[in-house]
Design brief:
mainly beta; Lipocalin; 2 helices; 11 strands; globular
Amino acid sequence: MDTIFSGKWILQEAYSSDPIDQYALTRSKSSWAEFTKVPNGTITLHMAHMLTVPNRTVWCVYHHFPNIKLRKNVLLLDLPQFNASAKIKFLKACNECLVLTAKAFVPGYEPLDYLLAYGLHPELNEYFLRPTREQASCKRLKPPPPFHYKGAAQSLNSHMKRDEASSEGLLQQMCFTQEFSGFRACAQAET
């Protein structure tokens, strides 16, 4: 369990049972997650996702979830402001892999299932992704995964800065930030 706290995890593949989330995953460029143990025994989760929208705008969404409870191999995320919650379970994986399933409970929706495979390095060997794909099949999550990491196209660090190696040619960053209930959004215009 301590390996989840070893750094920033880069999302390699992602599956979702929700059609809206599946669409969002197909628009994703990159995503990372970082888990931090807090002295009070809870976990803080930081996540950032870059995705494109049809008008070719690149959006970055940053999540900050404090006070997540850890019970054995399960993280319990409670979002009372949305009357929502999630259970995140970690599955056995390689030393440089982090595979988790999540079940989200959101008012007005059937429980949402997710399967996420992360790697400590940008290029995770296909060999390590095969068990995740088998698990997705067992959970009746349709292949291919809506999200598959295609390399260092674009990614933002925790300070919302663009990596220097931008293969998409973003010349100018028009960023506006809104913070509410743990979410921060940033938009960039492609030129």
